[in-house]
Design a protein that fits this description.
By secondary structure, the chain is of the alpha+beta class. It has 2 domains: about 120 residues, Rossmann fold; about 160 residues, Tumour Suppressor Smad4, CATH 2.60.200. It is built from 9 helices and 20 strands. The protein has a 6-stranded antiparallel beta sheet. A 6-stranded antiparallel beta sheet has the order 15-14-11-8-17-18, with helices on one face. It has a 4-stranded parallel beta sheet with strand order 2-1-3-4. Helix 8 runs antiparallel to helix 9. The longest helix has 16 residues.
Length: about 290
């Protein structure tokens, strides 16, 4: 078993990781820990491990780290394990993964799997893998403006603070797109593989991350009031029914070249560039769920 860990995560998360690893070692499981050195390194490590025939690679981190590892495993029989150490841990909540050290260790030891079908964002000749969502517009502006230190100190509260700031500072340019060939326009767009957003909060009730396809959330109304209304509806589970929010199913999402650059986030991390298209990966990954 190879465990891939981002050492920038901080001491508290490193301590949580070692609690899980100690339990795995006590169970007689042989493992190796690899620390990432730069962006994309987790993908390289995972791809090498899959090429070497490892049965499982474990991503220790948040949704962004999980997506990097998943990128290296696509097309291989190597299973993906998760030690949830992120701020929101949306994928872990989506699949109801345990977050306690003993529960995580037990899941990795038992190796029961479920399909995880990632998405691909195509940007100017390259492809970016995501496991939960890609967001363009206000959503992307919040993540791009977020200060890592603030996120480390107050966790999800940092997103609330940055959302309040961006609700006033962001310009809300229009986003033109097509979903399966049908044209739409919105002020912000979230292309989601899963049902949840920002942690345990419902965005797309009909999403199924085990299958191909997306739920596309269109935030049609621009401006501060619309952003604050959506933010208030989110923790109440009312975002899908919020005025000006429309969620539609699709298999292929294309963004118009006329849009110009749009701030974009992927799985809660900044994404450099603006996607031209979002499609499914060619095949699913086996995710360890318990």
């Amino acid at each position: 078993m190879l465990v891939i860990f981002n050492p920038v995560a901080g001491r508290r998360r490193a301590a949580a990781l070692w609690k899980v690893l100690d339990l795995l070692v006590e169970s007689g499981i042989k493992l190796e820990v690899a620390e990432t050195q730069h962006a994309g390194h987790a993908t390289e490590l995972a791809r090498t491990a899959a090429r070497d025939g490892l049965e499982m690679v474990v991503a220790a981190g948040g949704d962004g780290t999980i997506a990097e590892v998943a990128n290296g495993l696509i097309g291989s029989p190597t299973a993906l394990g998760v030690i949830p150490l992120g701020t929101a841990n949306v994928l872990a909540k989506e699949y109801k993964l345990s977050t306690s050290p003993r529960g995580v260790a037990g899941a990795l030891a038992h190796r029961r799997t479920q399909a995880l079908w990632p998405g691909l964002a195509r940007l100017g000749g390259r492809e970016h893998v995501f496991v939960q969502m890609v967001g363009l517009g206000f959503d992307g502006a919040v993540v791009h403006g977020l200060q890592p230190l603030l996120k480390r100190v107050i966790g999800r509260g940092a997103y609330v603070w940055q959302s309040l700031w961006e609700s006033v500072a962001y310009g809300f340019p229009g986003v033109q797109l097509t979903v399966d060939g049908k044209a739409y326009q919105a002020s912000s767009v979230v292309v989601s593989k899963g049902r949840l957003y920002g942690g345990p909060y419902m965005l797309a009730p009909n999403a199924a991350s085990t299958k191909p396809g997306f739920q596309v959330a269109l935030f049609e109304n621009p401006g501060t009031f619309a952003a604050l209304l959506a933010g208030a509806a989110l923790p109440l589970g009312l975002l899908p029914r919020c005025p000006g929010v429309r969620v539609i199913a699709g298999r292929e999402v294309e963004f118009a070249a006329a849009n110009g650059p749009i701030l974009t986030q992927s799985d809660g991390d900044r994404l450099v560039g603006t996607p031209q298209m979002v499609v499914d990966a060619l095949s699913p990954i086996s995710l360890i769920v318990g």
